[in-house]
Write a structure and sequence with these properties.
The chain is about 35% helix and about 15% strand. With about 500 residues, the protein is an alpha+beta fold. Among the domains are: about 270 residues, 3-Layer(aba) Sandwich (Beta-lactamase); about 80 residues, Alpha-Beta Plaits.
């Protein structure tokens, strides 16, 4: 018998692989039932549906809920993005797609998030579940509690990755609802789902949905999924001309045909939804975290202010003496007054500090109206000296001025002050700057000395405070989260 050459063996393997991809995979996926839904993300109105309530295998669409729960845990102080997670034998043994984690390896939580969101790594998803709840089974129960609170009535999760398991089922409607919650509830993390590549701890991973993200104008997420039982699944979101549409497909026959169908559904959505519609954000589900010894349904870590430290009196400061030749710097009056007024209006809702007790001094209790009654003898009297008789007035012609010098300020990175915090993304630069000013006024204790910075993004303007130490940034975020203000830390040179 004649031995085959290496070239012949190579051609045979290529032919077998081609046969598998073109014949076997499509035939196996053809058995998976087809379901679809299109929704106007702004209002939640369903534009199109087919078999939308049929319970099917979601495959890796499951990871949307895994990541949602992780975002929730990070925002409520259960765990940090830089927490080192030890990989268990169970997580390391998950089948592909995977990051290739080893049992006993330690890796930061942020890298596991990127691997699960971008590469759809099963080992990373399992490690995330174990890091949050101790075991994958406990994490799946928390996923189910969160799904129920969202209104996902026909979904049951059995694991964190989405590999086929008896009873692990969902619907096109429920996954569309979940995709909408991911976008609106955690917009600061949503950019993960549009990254073509990402650093997952020294290893670059590539997005499983990069073909659609590159080919369809306005597409920016969300998640793919494939198993033989499920077929080719996808929840996709796109924005065009102020419209945002979410389309979901279960049971595609191949990556190409699934992407083509999703593009068709997105086009249908953009053609049918109105240009102007009232925005109705979905209500975030109740927090399903833990307190104490693991009792579910509790609340995250909160910063509590000691009652004894609450402000009791606010005395009127005396007038500040200013030298006659000192320059007076004035801010834009209208902007400052509006920001201060807004901060004063929001203060009762944001700050847990007790209300000040009534003042005992009559002139202070009466507020601004009592200010004329202040004893003028207590104030310093400054009488200007008479002008010299031989003073010569300046010429009407302006003297030559020095060239204008531009003063450049930058955040100091000395002493580790290269961290920052993000307090949200806003539709306009004006709105972002206004929120920054209000937040600085309400949280001056920890934000004093930081730099307010607005960063333009494709989907809006990020409101950031920069030039902070890691400890100060962490403290500021915890205090703001205790006041129900969205906040996450920005590490040196990067984001989440």
């Amino acid at each position: 018998m004649k031995a085959w050459s290496k070239q012949q063996i190579r051609w045979g393997l290529m032919a077998l692989a081609t046969f598998w991809m073109l014949v076997v995979v499509p035939l196996s996926a053809a058995a998976a039932p087809y379901a679809a839904m299109v929704m106007d993300a702004r209002s939640g109105e369903v534009v199109h549906s087919r078999n939308a309530d049929t319970r099917l295998h979601p495959a890796s669409l499951t990871k949307m809920m895994t990541l949602y729960v992780v975002f929730e845990a990070v925002e409520n102080g259960e765990i940090g993005l830089d927490t080192l997670v030890t990989i268990s034998t169970h997580a390391a043994s998950e089948p592909p797609s995977k990051l290739g984690l080893r049992a006993g390896q330690k890796i930061r939580l942020r890298y596991l998030i990127r691997a699960a969101a971008v590469k759809s790594a099963n080992d990373a998803a399992t490690a995330l579940g174990e890091a949050i709840e101790g075991s994958e089974a406990s994490f799946a129960r928390r996923m189910n509690r969160t799904a129920k609170a969202m209104g996902m009535t026909r979904t049951t999760f059995k694991n964190a990755h989405g590999l086929t398991e008896s009873g692990h089922l969902s619907t096109a409607r429920d996954m569309t609802i979940l995709g909408r919650h991911v976008f609106y509830d955690y917009p600061e993390y949503y950019n993960l789902f549009s990254r073509i590549t990402a650093d997952a701890g020294g290893r670059t991973v590539y997005h499983t949905n990069r073909k659609l993200l590159r080919a369809y104008r306005g597409a920016d997420g969300i998640k793919t999924g494939y198993t033989r039982a499920a077929g080719f699944n996808l929840v996709a979101s796109a924005e065009r001309g102020g419209k945002r549409v979410i389309a979901t497909v279960f049971g595609g026959r191949s990556t190409a045909s699934r992407n083509a169908k999703v593009a068709e559904l997105l086009d249908l959505g953009f053609n049918r939804v109105p240009t102007r519609v009232a925005l109705h954000r979905p209500r975030p589900p109740a927090y399903m975290g833990k307190i104490g010894d693991g009792v579910p349904g509790g609340y995250g870590k909160k910063v509590r202010l000691v009652a004894a430290a609450a402000v009791k009196r606010s005395l009127r400061p005396q007038a500040r003496m200013v030298a006659s030749d000192a320059p007076v710097l004035l801010a834009a009056k209208d902007d400052i007054e509006q920001a201060v007024l807004a901060a004063q209006q929001e203060a009762p809702a944001l700050s847990p500090v007790a209300k000040p007790e009534p003042e005992t001094e009559p002139q202070i209790a009466q507020g601004a109206a009592a200010s004329p009654s202040i004893d003028s003898a207590r104030l310093p009297r400054i009488n200007p000296e008479p002008r010299p008789a031989d003073l010569v007035l300046a010429s009407a012609q302006e003297p030559a001025r020095d060239p204008i010098q531009e003063v450049v300020t930058r955040v100091s990175t000395s002493g580790g002050r290269n961290w920052g915090i993000n307090i949200g993304r806003y539709p306009s630069e004006y709105k972002a700057r206004k929120i920054l000013l209000q937040t600085a006024l309400n949280e001056i204790t920890t934000l004093d000395g930081s730099l307010r910075k607005v960063v333009k993004r494709p989907t809006g303007f990020d409101a950031n405070f920069m030039g902070m130490t890691r400890e100060t940034a962490d403290l500021a975020c915890r205090r703001l989260q205790a006041k129900q203000v969205t906040c996450f830390m920005i590490e040196p040179g990067g984001g989440a």
